[in-house]
Amino acid sequence: MDIKNIPSSQLRLRDIPADEAEMVVIEEFALTFDGYAFWDEQGESCSDEAKSDCQCLDHLRTRLFFAQRAGRHSNGLERERAVPILRALRTELSAPTATICRHEAKPPQPPAE
Length: 113
What we know:
By secondary structure, this protein is mainly α. The chain is built from 5 helices and no strands. The protein has helices at 23-30, 35-42, 46-50, 57-71, 79-94. Helix 4 (57-71) packs antiparallel against helix 5 (79-94). The chain is globular. It starts with 22 loop residues before the first helix and ends in a 19-residue tail after the last helix.
């Protein structure tokens, strides 16, 4: 399975699977955002940011990514958990202005040496 990373700035409505899409399609979409790498570059923890109630694209995608990763250790990503996030992503992408997030104001952290 070769999944392409889609930066949030390039995400389009057509990229987001339908609520009734097969779960494998939703899981593949969740993996188009690498929450671990993204938050590591920000100097933050993916698991901490997945708990945030921020509705920006990066946090929404982090929640979906983290739910998919957690699902690997159980019965997989649950539709009941994924669909509200997919809907919130569609809402955010359709909004006339983007949700401003505190992390967007911070410059990326240099890698630890």
